[in-house]
Amino acid sequence: MSDHVDNTDKIIFAEVARGLAAVRGRPALVAHGACHYCDEPLAPGLPFCNVDCRDDYEKEQAAKARAGRPG
Description:
This is DUF2116 family Zn-ribbon domain-containing protein. By secondary structure, this protein is mainly alpha-helical.
C-alpha cells in the first residue's frame, strides 16, 4: 500500500514544482497607482482594483500568449 502512496506523493510534488516554476517564470506586475486592466486609481501596492479586473487581465494576457503576441 505504501508504494501507491509514495508514487502519488511523487506525482503531487512534481505537479506543484511544475506550477511553481511556471509562476516564477512570469514577470511580476509592478504596482503603479492604477489598475493594470481598467486604469482606475488605486492605493499604493495594489496592481488591480478587484478580482474581476485581475481575472480579465490574466485572460487577456493568456489570449495574447496563445496568439504569439507580446504581453
